[in-house]
């Protein structure tokens, strides 16, 4: 039966233990080991069985146990230390106050002060105890918040609270994924209801009301909107039912609540954010709400509001393929945003244009990534390669701009070390790199090469043993849930070896990630698995989206292969991939395997977690691995010392159009690496195979040295702060100060450009084309028509570079030409000098771009007139 009424009963905590309540409510416990150990001491069984949740430990602890601990001097001493550490963590100035602001602040910035960054994301992976994540995007967002907290960045986060979270996964007897959606009770979690805070918005004529939950992530507040309240009709209560659930209209409603409702939540909470960071396109409607606000409250026109909104906006895209972008039909956009367009005094066509590529028909679906690009002045992909892919994907948004100049940069993702690194490996880092290893530089990480081999191996052994125990427990529970008897599951007790070479593949089960690549050559795989002298074992985990039948088929294939009694103890799929299982896998793996179709892996962070724990990465050169793989080099600063590779690169046959042939070639590359390099190196010079070779441990240290300074979330967040947040905040001030004078001026200038630009062209370039010596200079004259524009409003640029085989200029450098008087009544004469700085076939061209003191990037408007 269903309860008619429900209420929360708080545990009665003895006075000496009062600090436990405070510690359990701040999610810093999810990465602070001493705090977690306190709750484990209370009841290790509840800790393990209850999803590693301090709130549940307190709720289920008996009064007798709490009374016992209230007189335990050792426990009270550790409790006082943890409480004092939390206070110091929250109160003392950190990197942002001391460095980013150029001062040594005595007190940290509070969330209600100016300069706050509002970070919007559809999911956040903070802990398995707060299951509001589905995979990499959410885990990345969680790590972003944790690193921002550690660094003292004044960031607040906005998301949704899903009453069922993402699904829990189980497998049928034949290996087919089954989904179940458990009810989540926010009152039982480390969440606090923001009393009196309500957000209302119109959903196609229906009023939705949302309450707001607050999760405290160290110093960073995370606010989550929840529509499941009695004030709403049942249909609207379901808006926040499941993460990535429902049909297209359901998804649209969720994204309106996240974006529009999120902005209104900030207002209701009294948080005047200055920078707005949209983590993927799902929250993109926040820009539309901000436009409406400026028009309503500040008296700006639509174009002026657009300029103001773009100034402080950051948009991060995680999608390397158009099919992965949310798109909504025109009729649905008109249904939900018709009143918004009317309030802003614009047509539906103008609204649709924000989510359309140039010349795209207004009937085409509204593209959330295109809107994200249009409503932000700062945009980035999540790895260097993904930046290149994104510039190619979105180049047409800036017509006439060369693809390499498309204004989309990149900041490579990172992972929060304290969350993911085992206690034993963290101790190795503390002893060699230093206590602050999470934000240490490359020079400090050189010291990890001095780590004692035995100490390092002991640390790795402890992690592998925990992995084996965890996987055995999951296999046993899964088998019992399927109705198998304990005697039938006897083999699980000896499944996996804590000394064998262990290779893990764990991530979302999307087809492009090719979890089953190894299965394309089953005989070759069986030979590897049945080699008792050099034992190798594979562990797979991951969820397929409930609607992804092909992804589910991948899981079924792996499960079917693993059913063979000869290899089921060393080749397995572990169900219900979550943060707890992820920690075990990344900490215990020897090799982390990644086999995506290049370049479809935007970044990927599971491998980063693994390499920080001593696993070696074996992957196609895609995502972050494309920029981090090192094949070995000589370091001139180390007396000519030669460093070996820090992992392995699987060949990519991306030029092959035949999919079957490509799979064959890339699988061959993977198997050759396993057979000729990975397995031999692991077992090199070992008599019984109980420990990896000295050569393997040297490779692990090189892995730490090269990757440790880069793969951390602290590096990532510093890159965001210095490269995007601080410039965006300064830009917002520039355009919004003095009653938005800058935004008004810039909008007027853009309107003038768009009306006059059709008359701008370069009609002639004059330069001596004779053979010249290297270093020579050549005078250049260009004949330019500006129409109604003044010379002060444009920059005429000369581009000089090599001429490629197709006649295209390559490796160009740019020189601004100077106006030298009128040539006739329609043309101005521009002159300058080209320096012939490299030998070979050189060429020049010229272009005209806008110029204004308020334009940061001349190509931002997509207005370029090229010489013809």
Explain this structure to me?
The protein is built from 28 helices and 29 strands. The chain has 868 residues and is of the alpha/beta class. The protein folds into 4 domains: 15-91, no CATH class; 117-161 and 187-413 and 721-736, Rossmann fold, CATH 3.40.50; 417-711, Rossmann fold (3-Layer(aba) Sandwich); 760-866, Sandwich (Immunoglobulin-like). The strands form 7 sheets. The chain has a 9-stranded mixed β-sheet. It has a 6-stranded parallel β-sheet with strand order 16-15-14-17-18-21, with helices on both faces. A 4-stranded antiparallel β-sheet has the order 22-23-27-26, with no helix packed on it. The model is unreliable at 103-113 (pLDDT under 50).
Question: What is shown here, in short?
Answer:
By secondary structure, the protein is an alpha/beta fold. The protein is globular and about 95 Å long.
SSE blueprint and pairings:
Elements lengths: L18 H7 L7 H10 L1 H6 L4 H7 L2 H7 L3 H19 L3 H6 L16 E4 L15 H16 L3 E6 L7 E4 L5 E4 L11 E12 L2 E12 L2 E7 L7 H4 L10 H22 L5 E5 L6 H13 L3 H10 L1 E4 L10 E2 L1 H15 L3 H7 L11 E2 H7 L3 E4 L2 H11 L14 E2 L6 H4 L2 H10 L9 H4 L7 H29 L19 E6 L15 H8 L6 E6 L7 H14 L8 E4 L4 H10 L2 E4 L11 H7 L3 E5 L4 H4 L4 E3 L5 E3 L3 E4 L8 H24 L11 H14 L5 H44 L4 E7 L9 E9 L8 E10 L5 E8 L1 E5 L5 E8 L6 E9 L14 E2 L2
Parallel strand pairs: 1-2, 1-8, 2-7, 8-9, 9-12, 12-13, 14-15, 14-17, 15-16, 17-18, 18-21
Antiparallel strand pairs: 3-4, 5-6, 6-7, 10-11, 19-20, 22-23, 23-27, 24-25, 24-28, 26-27, 28-29
């Amino acid at each position: 039966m269903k309860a008619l009424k429900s209420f929360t009963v708080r545990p009665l905590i003895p006075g000496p233990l009062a600090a436990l309540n405070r510690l359990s409510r701040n999610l810093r416990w999810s990465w602070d080991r001493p705090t977690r150990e306190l709750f484990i001491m209370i009841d290790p069984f509840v800790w393990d069985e209850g999803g590693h949740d301090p709130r549940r430990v307190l709720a289920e602890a008996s009064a007798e146990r709490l009374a016992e601990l209230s007189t335990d001097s050792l426990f009270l001493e550790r409790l006082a230390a943890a409480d004092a550490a939390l206070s110091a963590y929250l109160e003392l100035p950190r990197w942002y106050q001391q460095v980013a602001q150029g001062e040594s602040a005595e007190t940290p910035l509070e969330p209600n002060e100016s300069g706050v960054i509002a970070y919007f994301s559809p999911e956040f992976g903070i802990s398995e105890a707060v299951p509001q994540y589905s995979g990499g995007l959410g885990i990345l967002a969680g790590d972003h918040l944790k690193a921002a907290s550690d660094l003292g960045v004044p960031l607040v986060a906005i998301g949704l609270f899903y009453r069922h979270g993402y699904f829990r996964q189980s497998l049928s007897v034949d290996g087919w994924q089954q989904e179940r959606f458990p009810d989540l009770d926010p009152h039982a979690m480390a969440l606090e209801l923001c009393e009196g805070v309500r957000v209302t918005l119109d959903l196609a004529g229906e009023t939705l009301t949302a309450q707001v939950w607050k999760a405290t992530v160290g110093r960073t507040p995370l606010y989550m909107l929840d529509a499941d309240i009695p004030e709403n009709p049942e249909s609207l209560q379901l808006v926040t039912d499941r993460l990535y659930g429902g049909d297209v209209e359901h998804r649209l409603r969720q994204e309106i609540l996240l974006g529009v409702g999120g902005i209104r939540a900030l207002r209701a909470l009294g948080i005047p954010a200055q920078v707005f960071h949209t983590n993927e396109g799902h929250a993109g409607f926040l820009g539309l709400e901000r436009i409406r606000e400026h028009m309503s409250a500040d008296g700006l026109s639509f174009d002026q509001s657009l300029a103001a909104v773009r100034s402080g906006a950051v948009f991060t895209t995680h999608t390397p393929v158009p099919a992965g972008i949310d798109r909504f039909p025109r009729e649905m956009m008109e249904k939900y945003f018709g009143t918004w367009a009317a309030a802003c005094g614009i047509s539906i066509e103008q609204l649709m244009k924000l989510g359309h590529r140039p010349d795209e028909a207004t009937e085409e679906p509204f593209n959330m990534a295109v809107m994200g690009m249009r409503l932000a002045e700062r945009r980035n992909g999540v790895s260097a390669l993904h930046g290149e892919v994104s510039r190619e994907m979105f180049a047409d948004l800036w017509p006439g701009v060369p693809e390499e100049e498309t204004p989309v940069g990149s900041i490579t993702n990172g992972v929060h070390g304290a969350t993911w690194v085992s206690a034993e490996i963290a101790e190795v880092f503390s002893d060699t790199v230093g206590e602050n290893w999470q934000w240490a530089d490359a020079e400090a990480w050189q010291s990890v090469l001095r780590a004692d081999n035995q100490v390092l191996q002991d640390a790795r052994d402890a992690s592998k043993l925990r992995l084996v125990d965890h996987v055995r427990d999951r296999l046993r529970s899964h088998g019992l849930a399927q109705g198998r008897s304990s005697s039938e599951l006897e083999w699980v007790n000896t499944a996996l070896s804590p000394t064998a070479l262990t290779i893990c593949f764990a991530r979302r089960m999307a087809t492009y990630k090719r979890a089953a690549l190894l299965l394309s050559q089953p005989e070759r795989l069986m030979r590897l698995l049945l080699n008792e002298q050099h034992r190798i074992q594979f562990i797979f985990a991951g969820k397929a989206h409930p609607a992804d039948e092909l992804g589910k088929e991948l899981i079924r294939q792996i499960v079917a292969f693993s059913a063979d009694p000869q290899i089921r103890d060393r080749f397995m799929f572990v169900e219900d991939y979550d943060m707890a299982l992820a920690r075990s896998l990344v900490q215990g793996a020897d090799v982390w395997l990644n086999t995506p179709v290049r370049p479809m892996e935007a970044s990927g962070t599971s491998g980063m977690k693994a390499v920080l724990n001593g696993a070696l990465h074996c992957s196609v050169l895609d995502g972050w691995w494309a920029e981090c793989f090192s094949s070995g080099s000589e370091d001139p600063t180390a007396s000519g010392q030669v460093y070996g590779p820090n992992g392995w690169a699987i060949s990519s046959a991306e030029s092959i159009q035949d999919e079957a042939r490509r799979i064959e070639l890339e699988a061959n590359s993977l198997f050759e690496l396993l057979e000729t390099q990975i397995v031999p190196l692991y077992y090199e010079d070992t008599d019984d195979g109980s420990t990896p070779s000295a050569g393997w441990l040297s490779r692990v240290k090189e892995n730490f040295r090269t990757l440790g300074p880069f793969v951390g979330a602290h590096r990532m967040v510093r890159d965001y702060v210095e490269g995007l947040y601080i410039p965006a905040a300064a830009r917002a001030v520039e355009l919004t100060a003095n009653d938005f004078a800058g935004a008004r001026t810039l909008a007027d200038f853009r309107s003038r450009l768009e009306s006059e630009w059709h008359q701008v062209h370069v009609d002639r370039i004059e330069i001596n084309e004779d053979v010249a010596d290297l270093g020579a200079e050549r005078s250049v004259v260009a004949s330019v028509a500006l129409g109604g524009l003044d010379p002060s409003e444009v920059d005429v640029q000369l581009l000089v570079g090599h001429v490629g085989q197709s006649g295209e200029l390559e490796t160009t450098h740019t020189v601004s030409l100077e106006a030298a008087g009128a040539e006739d009544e329609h043309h101005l004469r521009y002159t300058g000098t080209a320096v012939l700085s490299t030998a070979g076939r050189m060429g020049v061209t010229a272009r005209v771009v806008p110029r204004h003191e308020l334009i940061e990037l001349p190509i931002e408007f997509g207005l370029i007139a090229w010489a013809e």
